[in-house]
Amino acid sequence: MRTRVKICGITRLQDALAAVEAGADALGFVFYPPSPRAVTPAQAAEIIAALPPFVTTTALFVNAQRNEIDEVVALTQVDLLQFHGDETPEFCQSVQKPFIRALRVKPETDLQAAAQDYAAARALLLDTYVAGVPGGTGAVFDWQLIPETLRPKIVLAGGLTPQSVAQAVAQIRPWAVDVSGGVEQAPGIKDAQKIQEFINEVNRVHV
Ligand SMILES: O=C(O)c1ccccc1NCC(=O)[C@H](O)[C@H](O)COP(=O)(O)O
């Protein structure tokens, strides 16, 4: 099975096209204003409109209001939503778009229970818990906390880099991997060479 790759925190068309050219399967757009990777709906819509076909687009939210989400969906026509806040299963499903549930993993996180609670999610994105930072931490969590039974349905995130992703794929065999900071020159500014190296490393691992 080929491990899919999502490049997250896209703020520029040139970075989106570089990621797609490198073989990225999905792109993530952050609608959380405190993030250095945040974009407006109009900015994201302009980038998405210029993409070639067969690239999945994802909108990321942290406890956004329903009207904010509806505006992003209407303007950008994203394929998937990704929730990083305290959004309940009912709220996630109420938006009536396919969604990914991000979970910030701590030793006490019951991932099996979360998987049951968010059974309607297309996937669980397992990310690193850092107090006060909903995503894009650049930190790695203990992958041994991930139950074997969950792995086919997860997107592994949190501090991945071109140097670490091959080990992550070989060890966890996730459905996909997701990266933001590990392929950047600066927050929100992607590095095309790092993106290519990251994807080459994912593809090097035969799972
Ligand atoms: O990337 C952000 O700045 C961000 C801010 C707030 C919520 C989510 C955010 N990113 C979500 C992602 O899916 C990131 O790719 C993921 O957290 C991993 O980030 P990194 O550790 O930098 O690879």
TrEMBL record:
Keywords: Amino-acid biosynthesis, Aromatic amino acid biosynthesis, Isomerase, Tryptophan biosynthesis. Residues 5-200 form the N-(5'phosphoribosyl) anthranilate isomerase (PRAI) domain. Pathway: Amino-acid biosynthesis; L-tryptophan biosynthesis; L-tryptophan from chorismate: step 3/5. Coiled coil: none annotated. GO terms for molecular function: phosphoribosylanthranilate isomerase activity. It catalyses: N-(5-phospho-beta-D-ribosyl)anthranilate = 1-(2-carboxyphenylamino)-1-deoxy-D-ribulose 5-phosphate. One of its GO terms (biological process) is L-tryptophan biosynthetic process. Belongs to the TrpF family. This is N-(5'-phosphoribosyl)anthranilate isomerase. The gene is trpF.
